[in-house]
Amino acid sequence: MSDSSLAPPAVFMELHAGNRKRLVAALRAHLSTSGRPLHGIVLLKGGEEQTLYCTDRVPLFRQESYFAYLFGVREPGFYGAVDIASGQSILFAPRLTLDDAIWNGEKELSSFKDMYRVDFVFYVDDLAQVLRCQFSEHGEPLLFLLYGKNTDSGNYSKPASFEGIEKFDTDLSTLHPILTECRVIKSDMELAFIQYANDVSSKAHIEVMRQIKPGMKEFQLESIFIHHASMHEGCRHCSYTCICATGHNSSTLHYGHAGAPNDQTLNDGDMALMDMGAEYNFYGSDITCSYPINGKFKRNQTIVYNAILRAHNDVISHMQPGVRWIDMHKLAEQRILESLKKENIIHGDIGDMMNQRLGAVFMPHGLGHLLGIDTHDPGGYPKGLERPKEPGLRSLRTIRELKEGMVITVEPGCYFIGTLLRHAKDDPISSKFFNWEKIEMYKSFGGVRIESNLYVTAQGCKNLTNCPRETWEIEAVMAGAPWPSRDDCSSATTTKNGLPKT
Amino acid sequence: MSDSSLAPPAVFMELHAGNRKRLVAALRAHLSTSGRPLHGIVLLKGGEEQTLYCTDRVPLFRQESYFAYLFGVREPGFYGAVDIASGQSILFAPRLTLDDAIWNGEKELSSFKDMYRVDFVFYVDDLAQVLRCQFSEHGEPLLFLLYGKNTDSGNYSKPASFEGIEKFDTDLSTLHPILTECRVIKSDMELAFIQYANDVSSKAHIEVMRQIKPGMKEFQLESIFIHHASMHEGCRHCSYTCICATGHNSSTLHYGHAGAPNDQTLNDGDMALMDMGAEYNFYGSDITCSYPINGKFKRNQTIVYNAILRAHNDVISHMQPGVRWIDMHKLAEQRILESLKKENIIHGDIGDMMNQRLGAVFMPHGLGHLLGIDTHDPGGYPKGLERPKEPGLRSLRTIRELKEGMVITVEPGCYFIGTLLRHAKDDPISSKFFNWEKIEMYKSFGGVRIESNLYVTAQGCKNLTNCPRETWEIEAVMAGAPWPSRDDCSSATTTKNGLPKT
């Protein structure tokens, strides 16, 4: 691995213009099919800065994701509009006071037009008038507003609102599913940014691998990752809070939050589970590496690790358009159960275990999720697709068929979670599958997860992540061997089915 | 400066217990004076995790500051109560589901009692019943809730609410001013944490000074600071978004936000203005260093820098209990104007300039603010104290008399802000004070700020910040000289009037 910085994609505003173009095409196709007129205005409100509780402390602003997708605007307080008839785009910027200029800097309205490459810019307080006058060709324009449910959070997006909106006709149902579906399929330019975030994060993970040693604190691993991504590659945001779990902590899936703030001392002989991803120009990555803190896999660590690696690789080799994601989840579960059975950690018929949903005891989360501007990118459950109810399966953030252009994480894991194992032991049917003596030996093991980001191609998929995955590769890199080797250092390695070259 | 880590204070929960004790004493004194019964229950609601817009992305939780002050709880979703009669404290923790245990970790209720050293712990859903039964000695208890205005943001704190609260008598006016006043005067334990945050930040600033060079990007300076504070000293939060402004950017007071994300390339010959502070166990620091990117002060940089240093030092030498902060602000303005006049950048009578509020053209912000769990700690304008209306003075976050135990920032600055200079030029009275030819030479200079954190003592004040301040010290440290020198490396240097040793 070279110490030089990576080069981010050179396109920025072309990307967002492309996103708007795809939205307009999709909307026009939809309206045309329903026999509705091909005009109206898409209107979105960007995010606002929020203060922390009652104070004036303002956490670093991050744009709302749908607004970022269409306009790429970094600042708070904007509105954005797209005219469906002409495809023209307008940004409405907040009007600055003298105090704003002093505290936040002077900015000419026209500078936003140059920066964000839209057709027009106006002030927010002129919004109603501009919408009425600029686009009155077809009479008072119909406003398409964004309103719909995020199937991961259960929250609803808040439709744009402004003084005088009651005088416009509005449509709250059309835009959300269509815009969401646009976000599901990534353009080449979007892919370039996700690839960049992956390249940065892969490098930063390797930096952590090389610096980790017993006696350090978990938060130091977080610090190394964030610093590397920011200092060398300009990623000011991470896609999510870093999970730096070692030893038993790695059985807490979202370890690293305020109540478990990556603050344990690293023990010689324990495993580390590092789930960290950087974000660049809104687009993210989501990568997990698991490895022994001291750089040498012990036998039981190799067993669990290889069970997960086999599931990870097998899923990737099966991925292609048309494949159902729920089947990939079950495939991963089956491979994990087979491996555990081989080691006599569980016993019995694999089919019976699958029927009993035993896989969810070891992997209670879903196999993976769509990835883009959001770490859990929306569109996992479009209308008509119901979330399963069974353990494990109900944690899936999507059960869709794969389509060319999707980016999705593959993140099988195996954890020894006290509360789930106790439940399984108390259940007379589940209980008999376990070799409880063996399980006891793993009770403070924690867990292993391997997570890569995959781009679905016409024939298969491309692995955007480039971290050492085989145990011998990991041991070599942790001992100082170069990664990637000289002949495949151009972004991520890939083969027809997305497996890293070995 | 040694490369070894600093040692944070060993007390944690004693600090918060001490804070509760002081609140109870202050409340009892107040109730007693007003002839009211000396019982009732202080009830606060801690912060909740917030998702970003409609997504399930959850920024790292930071506890609400009043709640942090009294209970030190790191996790979201808690309530906390203090019984005024007995001084006993109770925490109410959210009841976890099986899913919570899997995703966020298992935690026994009793573990919170041990961790946070309170007298009782219960679940949130038992709150109404516990309040009614546990403290029924004096009949149904009166609940003292937190409701009041933050004078920096203009926001109001949200009083605790829970199912069944309507059956209790509540008092919304007593608690806020008393609890706020408790926060204004720092205990020794609180001071120890603010000192630690200062020690960490001083070291991290020096690290930045040593690594800065032309050609770097501003965000790299931010990254070095954050990494140093986190990696070596365990500070996971900064007190505020880093301001890493170079050249002309340093005339934007809150540069570094999303619209101006510290992304300029560093130019040889420009000044850097670095306003960054780490936070530890909720307590913060707020430090600004200004210096030339290439490590050598040019003549005009020395002029502006020394004008500010003189104001900074002169204010500190005057600080002691009873001194009015607005007078310190004016003293700083006067010193700056005197220095600028000496260099013929302005001309005329200093008294006339002061009457004309000319100081606010060069320093439109306030001289400093209370500092503690919030960067802009509350209590700057207690009841009866009105915010001034004049330019510059109206930006003061407090105009109080200094009291022993206050921690306050001293941060004079001088900036060449286009919009303010244009206004001054257009004003026939102000205009005549300026030597516009000279001003033109500074138009892309940016600005200089020097900011230290001061603890008001009985006789004067103690400077908690320990960064090189004299131009020759800065040049030496940037060239690799040790800092602090061997004989004063124990936390911050101090003299009777808080000036750093030179």
UniProtKB/TrEMBL annotation, chains A, B:
<keyword id="KW-0378">Hydrolase</keyword>
<dbReference type="Pfam" id="PF00557">
    <property type="entry name" value="Peptidase_M24"/>
</dbReference>
<dbReference type="GO" id="GO:0070006">
    <property type="term" value="F:metalloaminopeptidase activity"/>
</dbReference>
<dbReference type="InterPro" id="IPR029149">
    <property type="entry name" value="Creatin/AminoP/Spt16_N"/>
</dbReference>
<dbReference type="Pfam" id="PF05195">
    <property type="entry name" value="AMP_N"/>
</dbReference>
<dbReference type="InterPro" id="IPR000994">
    <property type="entry name" value="Pept_M24"/>
</dbReference>
<keyword id="KW-0479">Metal-binding</keyword>
<dbReference type="InterPro" id="IPR052433">
    <property type="entry name" value="X-Pro_dipept-like"/>
</dbReference>
<feature type="domain" description="Aminopeptidase P N-terminal">
    <location>
        <begin position="11"/>
        <end position="154"/>
    </location>
</feature>
<dbReference type="GO" id="GO:0030145">
    <property type="term" value="F:manganese ion binding"/>
</dbReference>
<dbReference type="InterPro" id="IPR036005">
    <property type="entry name" value="Creatinase/aminopeptidase-like"/>
</dbReference>
<protein>
    <recommendedName>
        <fullName>Aminopeptidase P N-terminal domain-containing protein</fullName>
    </recommendedName>
</protein>
<keyword id="KW-0464">Manganese</keyword>
<dbReference type="InterPro" id="IPR007865">
    <property type="entry name" value="Aminopep_P_N"/>
</dbReference>
